[in-house]
């Protein structure tokens, strides 16, 4: 709006604006098409990125939940060892959350703590049940796949390039300027056309920018499953702690029976 009058004065400095609706229509047709196609590609890009991030995080957190459930069923483990495995899982989840939220806490960030589970599995006796062997094999498989979470940080925080935003904004400005040049002999109609054009451009920019930040804004990735897993880990850890304290008070060796 601020640039409209200077542009009119520059183009027609010694006369009033002529009727150029046909010329503006020839300009708006390709400009609007390029604008729509460009925003369509940008929307598809950010939406596909959010879908990929959602699927990847859901898969990773579901594997963490499986690790927790498999740990509960390892009867050959002592309670203290099982508690160490729960702590390793919790630290790995917190590390992922810190990467997601981009928290400035590099001192407390614990990378690769998921591998501590392998050290805990070394405490299992050599003679064990076949079911325990199968559970250990699955645990090691899930640990190996979860270790790649840190490598996916670049995908979690990928953004549309600033030059692409400049291109989209220039296209939007050109389309809006073209609408301003249209003369309808009706101020109300011209106002309505300007309002609809401005609203559509603003909503398009807002939706693309909102989806481009998958962990903030209105269209964000749901991380409720993380809270549920952390709550389950806390419950399992507390039960194992109660079991350990009960055995210590009784003067017995640490029980191998899971408390969960």
Automatic annotation (TrEMBL):
Keywords: Membrane, Transmembrane, Transmembrane helix. InterPro entries: DUF4239. The chain crosses the membrane at residues 20-43. This is Uncharacterized protein LOC111128081.
